[in-house]
Amino acid sequence: MRIVAVVNEKGGVGKTTTVMALAALAAETDQVLVVDLDPQGSAMDWGSAAEAAGKELAFQIVTARNPQDLGQMRELDFDLIIVDTPGNLQNADLLRQIAEYCDHVILPTEPTAMAVRPLVRTWQDVVDPTGTPYSVLLTRTDPRVPRDVEDTRELLSGLSLTVLEPHVRSYKVHERASIDGTVVTGYEKNRMSEKAAGDYRDVLTALREQWESEDTSVKGGVA
Ligand SMILES: Nc1ncnc2c1ncn2[C@@H]1O[C@H](COP(=O)(O)OP(=O)(O)OP(=O)(O)O)[C@@H](O)[C@H]1O
Ligand SMILES: [Mg+2]
């Protein structure tokens, strides 16, 4: 069992989109649970939209109030729990508590200079004090401007932050998925839907490689 949280104190950076895409892809081989710890309930709403559209998701979504709930959830029969979290600056304490219970934190960010400051602050508030392993994920990148990705990667590496090699390009499919009540893997196969799902598939592969070297028994002791 591995618990992974998707965290950034900045709103609208693609946290919920990342949670749902990774859950859908991981559920192709693993038992996956999404835990919505964001009071906005976006992941829960997304699940309800899927139910209303008659599209059964291959993973479960539950809501939780307290980070402590994650301690009990570790006993459940899932391979992977992915936690969605709120994105605003008032939540540093909550996010730190969530990170305490998690084995890994994914920090999604857009590839802009403006986004780097809140990302670094999140790293300082959440990751550094808890020592939880993490990866920065560049999301909503513009396929026409690869330079942004390279520049942001360089900037973050200069600050000694670990950035995942694969990144997630901006595609309409991601924007549409919650409205359509589906996930990125739920679309008919075409060039765009395959690229959109492929980006997250590469991200999951890179994460799994990293997870192999990370020991879940360290946090397994937190109750
Ligand atoms: N790769 C992508 N391509 C295109 N649109 C995207 C992508 N990722 C996210 N989006 C869009 O960006 C917006 C914000 O994404 P999302 O809701 O996942 O962010 P969030 O970090 O969870 O936001 P909040 O902090 O409000 O919870 C949404 O409209 C979503 O559809
Ligand atoms: Mg969200």
Summarize the structure in words:
By secondary structure, this protein is an alpha/beta fold. It has a single domain, classed as 3-Layer(aba) Sandwich (Rossmann fold). The chain contains nine helices and six strands. It has a six-stranded parallel β-sheet with strand order 3-2-4-1-5-6, sandwiched between helices. The structure holds adenosine-5'-triphosphate and magnesium ion. The site of magnesium ion (MG) has 6 residues, from helix 1.
Q: Report on the biggest sheet.
A: 6 strands, parallel
Report the principal-axis shape. Answer: globular
Strand order of the largest sheet: 3-2-4-1-5-6
Count the beta strands. Answer: 6
Which regions contain 5 or more consecutive residues with pLDDT less than 50? none
Averaged pLDDT, please?
95
How far from one another are the termini? 15 Å
CATH homologous superfamily heading: P-loop containing nucleotide triphosphate hydrolases
The fold-level CATH name is: Rossmann fold
The small-molecule ligands in this entry are:
adenosine-5'-triphosphate, magnesium ion
CATH class value: Alpha Beta
Count of the separate structural domains: 1
Radius of gyration: 16 Å
Helix proportion of residues, in percent? Answer: 40-55%
CATH architecture: 3-Layer(aba) Sandwich
Summing up helix and strand content along with how strands pair, one would put the structural category as: alpha/beta
- Beta-strand share of residues: 5-15%
Discrete helix count = 9
